[in-house]
Amino acid sequence: MAKQKSSYVCGECGYTTHRWLGNCPSCKKWNSLVETLEVTDPANKPAHRAKLEGQDFDSPEPLTLAQINPDESVRVVTGFNEFDRVLGGGMVPGSFILIGGDPGIGKSTLALQLAGKRSDLMILYCAGEESPAQIRQRADRLGVKSDKLHVYAETDVLRIQEATEKLKPDILVVDSIQTAYRPELQSMPGTVAQIRESASLLMRLAKQRNITTLVIGHVTKDGDLAGPRVLEHMVDTVLQFEGDKALNYRLLKTLKNRFGRTNETGVFEMTTAGLRDVPNPSELFLSGLSEGIS
User: What percent of the chain has pLDDT over 70?
Assistant: First the structure.
């Protein structure tokens, strides 16, 4: 009979212990340990691993450097010049990208417009915060039209994996990682364990199937990405989308990039038809300054 095992996971660094501590021994953060329940089988093996045994990804064979195809130079150009520039020339196939930002800042709009700009690519958009009808309305407003854009209203990452294996998209969008969950875990979506395990499966899916994966995440009131810090270590690229909602410009900053430079900043203008590139940011800021003076 399956038993429940309790552990405490640090929301900052992912440190795990079997008893609650006021201070995390790893990152020294106070009150960061959250209780997590995990179901185990009689053989003391996690139930979700026993369930997936024999159904998980193929185990890759070790390769020499000469056997590896150096395809990192082939990037997927999205058509958003500022987005491509921030990434270092476009998205690397099989890369795992995290876009963080405040709710309502335009992360979903950015992801949907990216999907619409490359109508020649197969794209799977997994929505956890909007219905397909709402996404269709947003797409119509943004002028996004593509016969290869598939919308899937699902947050179960195992079903997302099945749909991805069946469709074999070029780009996978998950909106958002805080709504994704693995049904074998007993914790609620958005908890440390769910975010960590969901991101782990999506990362393996991206790497072993060579699918560019774009994951949207929310930030806390302190401006940090919600969820465990280990999430930022797992992904290839961390992008921060920010700006004042009362104004019409947005900044996309590179906090981490395994395939390009960090501390790059792209500027967008939010219009009624969605986001547009701002190739000359000084012109935008100076116009806003002159309006404020007048």
Answer: 81
